[in-house]
Amino acid sequence: MTLLEVLAGVRTKLLTVHAAVFIRDAVPRNADGVPQLPERCIIIDLIIDTKVRDFTTVYSSVLVQVGCWSSSVAQSLTDLEAARAALEADGWDMVRVNGTQTDQQYRGATADFTTIY
Question: What single-letter DSSP state applies at residue 15?
């Protein structure tokens, strides 16, 4: 299974939580390059570590980070809990909950998940 297939599978599963699920590098942007996100969304990202830095060997770890974003931290946490339930039903394990993040518009809650293939 390729890393792109991993991301696509996680995205498909998270679409059951909310309709706006983006892979980090595919976040829509306006003409000025500024990200254009809906009021509520989920952004997924890969965190990988390899034994050799050429990406041709076996990965020593692969984490999928799921970030739930909203104007309300309560909504973000609710979405993250729903994402956890959806991914754990598919064999993923939550290994870490990260600190909440904020900016002028969004409140985010993120967690890292891993599974064995």
Answer: T
